[in-house]
Amino acid sequence: MKLKLTKSQLDVVAKYLGDISKLVFAASVLGFLMPLGETHVTVTAFIMGTIVTVATFAFSVQLTR
Predict the structure, then answer these.
(1) Model pTM score
(2) What DSSP character marks residue 64?
C-alpha cells in the first residue's frame, strides 16, 4: 500500500521533521557542548544526536523538493 500525500501535506511533514531535527540538536549536541548542572551528555549521545539531526533535516529537505 502506497501512501499518496498532497503538496501541502508533504510541507507539513517536512516542517515536522525540521522541528524534530532542531529538538534533537538542542537536546544532544548543544547539551554536549554546554553541560549545565549535574547532567552531562555522553560522546555516544552526541554522535547519535548529530546523526539523527542530519538525517531528519536531510529527509525534510528531500520532501520539499
Answers:
(1) 0.75
(2) T
- Per-residue pLDDT tens over the stretch 21-39: 999 888 887 777 776 666 6
Q: What phi and psi values does residue 64 have, to the nearest 5 degrees? A: -85, -5
Instruction: Quickly list DSSP for 8-62.
Output: HHHHHHHHHHHHHHHHHIIIIIHHHHS--TT----HHHHHHHHHHHHHHHHHHHH
- What's the full length of the chain, in residues? 65
Pick from 24, 27, 23: nearest CA to 36: 27
Domain ranges of the chain: 7-63
